[in-house]
Amino acid sequence: MISLEQNLHSLFGFGEFREGQQQTIEQLLSGHSSLAVFPTGSGKSLCYQFTATQLPHLTLVISPLIALMHDQLAFLSSKGINAACLDSSQSKDESQAVMSGVQDGSIKILMISVERFKNERFRRFIKHIPISMLVVDEAHCISEWGHNFRPDYLKLPSYQQELTIPLVLLLTATATRRVQRDMAQKFTIHPEHIVQTGFYRPNLDIDLIAVDSSNKLVTLKSQIDETQGAGIVYVTQQKTAEDVARHLQTSGYSATAYHAGLDSETRRTIQADFMAGKTRIIVATIAFGMGIDKADIRLVVHFDLPKSIENYSQEIGRAGRDRQPSRCVLLASLEGLSTLENFVYGDTPEPQNIDTLLNSITEQTSQSTHSYNSTQSLWETQSYSLSMQTNIRALPLKTLLVQLELLNVLTAKYTYYSDVRLKWEGDRNEFANRIPDEWQAAYQALLKGIQYKKIWGTPDFDKLFNEAGLSRGDVLEILEYAADNNVLTLESKGLTDVYEVHTEHFHHQTLVSQLHHYVEEKQNAEIARIATMIRFFQLDRCLNNNLARYFGDQHAPEHCGHCSVCRGNILVFAPPAQQGAEAWSNMAEYVREFTHYLSSKSPPTKVTAVLITRFLTGLTQPIFTKVKARQLSGFGVYEEKSYSSVLDAVTQLLGHH
Predict the structure, then answer these.
(1) What is the distance between the alpha carbons of residues 284 and 234, in angstroms, rounded to a whole number?
(2) Residues 447-451, mean pLDDT to the nearest whole number
(3) Is 274 within a domain?
(4) Which of 29, 72, 371, 645 is deepest in the core (most CB within 10 A)?
(5) Using DSSP, how many helices (H) and how many strands (E) does the chain show?
(6) CATH number of the domain bearing residue 258
(7) Residues 36-80: tens digit of each pLDDT
(8) Number of domains the chain contains
(9) Residue 108 and residue 54: Cα distance in Å, rounded?
(10) Does residue 553 fall inside a structural domain?
(11) Does 373 share its domain with 493?
(12) Which SUPFAM superfamilies does the entry link to (predicted)?
């Protein structure tokens, strides 16, 4: 019998497994779902890549970023392993080719984002494919107590059941014990099948340097000068990325800014230049680095505070993957602290917003009788207009809808495009000869059920259902088949989510308080996470040891000898400047202007102390976009100040009036 090592060598060309890999692979091949917690850059992906080659059917990989997928696909294709992804950047023909390869079994690994499950066509397709294993990369996104929580990930356990996938592998680099337990429970992974390797990286030097804002750039340049090789400088905001990169360029450094505000082509080019060594320093928001497999990054600088210990660990983990000495520097000051906290406060929906959301569900729910004679209460919604209507930002809105699903109030049925239109490219009557026999009657009915405006036609779904018994899915299946055969062009827009509403569980007031309690708890947990990080940076014990212990690794040395604390430098943050009464001198004027403006532009909107505070601290809300509130003089005037201090001042001001 061929051993695992022999297979590893013949498939991937590696001589031996790294720590934790073999145990994880053996568990999976024995049929045990597993969770692998390995630090950044220590070979998590190999666990599923190797296992997939040994399993009979498809391995389905959920990954949060297209860039991550493309990196892994390039690696697999270099090893001759047939893998593919379905993503939004592909053309019709490309995704069609991938689906055919999955159907005929030639593609062993398919990578998708979790949102792909909402796609009507993909759901119809994947139901007929036998799947051996579900892999969730960056799996901490599943846990509400982890960082980077993505609400759609909560639905993965039900997708696993729906598609009867026997085996699950969860992969993450950053999960505390609590998050590990939470993840494992959701997929019924037994504690003995959680594989965690050591977190301690002996080649990383951690240095925390107290700076004030006036000498940050000078300190940054001296750190770059002291280090040879490539570096990443992390900042919080896109504007800072541009400013710092420009400053470095004018000082003669090879540096470029990278953030989510750049188009994908530009981002790809910047990343490729960095990987190829053409650019030495990338100044980036946290959008950069996921899945960046550059082994020789010598310096990671946090110009601004990271978002959490988890983010910090993941970001410094990009240094020195070739195991050579590398430096991780934090330019420590509390000035960006308010910005970090304010992001959290801006995301929390107010009780009246939650109330509006629930009203919208009850008001817009329609009774629909399906062909199988049961009456369902259905609610249809489009996320952008719902966000505008409720004044809840997109991500928290998604979170609330997923919570309503978990509370059994809603069930996501399917997603469809409200506007479907088609244009014939070939002979529609001749095409009848090429259509499968069992579709003949349906196709003829369909030809009669299209209404034309000039050359574009729209299928009348109601008529087709009532007269020919064709469901929406039947109609689309035939149209997609015709489009795949180039007989017509199919266009769709207006993505609409359809939910079944379980009215028996819909207790309005109870739900408002339950959901509000949930979002408050999440807000408090996020704020506490930031406070924990600030405490962590000021500890007087070895930083490498504390970092390992935070993630449940008890085996790191007590004194690493290569962190600022071991060198006798304990960080003390300079106290932030005190705010006197003059700080708020024009507040009454800003508040008056905003209140007056909002009541004229959007009379139904309730002006609360919280809404005013979000306006003054420059936290974008759907209602501000809708009424163009950015043009008012008070928008964002206090963005440097802490949310709670502004809220206190506003509350006091409103109390006086």
Answers:
(1) 5
(2) 91
(3) yes
(4) 72
(5) 26, 19
(6) 3.40.50.300
(7) 998 877 788 999 999 999 999 999 999 987 777 888 898 899 999
(8) 4
(9) 10
(10) no
(11) yes
(12) P-loop containing nucleoside triphosphate hydrolases (SSF52540)
Helix (H) or strand (E) run with residue 484 in it: helix 472-484
* Three-state DSSP state, 118: helix
Is residue 320 a part of any domain in this protein?
yes
Give the residue among 139, 156, 159, 136 at the shortest CA–CA distance from 148. Answer: 139
Q: Counting Cβ atoms within 10 Å, is residue 332 exposed (0-12), middle (13-18) or buried (19+)?
A: buried
Looking at the fold, whether 222 and 179 belong to one and the same domain comes out as: no
* pTM (predicted TM-score): 0.81
State how far the Cα of 451 lies from the Cα of 438, in Å rounded to an integer: 24
Query: H or E segment at 381?
Result: strand 375-381
- 415 and 335: one domain? no
Of 148, 174, 196, which closes a domain?
Answer: 196
Percentage of the chain lying above the pLDDT 90 cut? 62
Placement of tokens 């053409």 in the chain: 278
Q: Please, are residues 308 and 234 in contact by the beta-carbon 8 Å criterion? A: no
Q: Which residues of 534-561 are buried (b: 16+ CB within 10 A; e: fewer)?
A: eebbeeeebbbbbbbbbbbbeebeeebe
Q: Name the residue range of residue 45's domain.
A: 4-196
Cα torsion through 647, 648, 654, 655, rounded to 10: 150
Query: SS3 of 163, please?
Result: coil
Same domain, 37 and 72: yes
pLDDT above 70 covers a percentage of the chain that reads 96
Residues 358 and 304 reside in one and the same domain: no
How many whole angstroms from its chain centre is CA 102? 26
Tokens of 454: 């000039």
Domain membership flag for residue 346: no
pLDDT digits (tens, 9 = 90+) for 576-600: 766 666 678 899 999 999 999 999 9
Residues 261 and 306 both lie in one domain: yes
Domain boundary among 341, 369, 401: 341
Q: Are residues 491 and 358 in the same domain?
A: yes
Q: Residue length, the chain?
A: 657
Token code pair at residue 246:
């420009």
Residue-by-residue DSSP string for 537-601 = HT-SS-HHHHHHHHTT---S-S--SSBTTTTT----PPPPPP--GGGGTTHHHHHHHHHHHHHHH
Q: How much is the pLDDT for 292? A: 65
Contact between 622 and 392 under an 8 Å Cβ cutoff? The reply is yes
519: Cα separation from own chain's centroid: 18
CA 331 remoteness from chain centre: 27
Nearest to 24 by CA among 196, 203, 201, 260: 196
Same domain, 30 and 125: yes
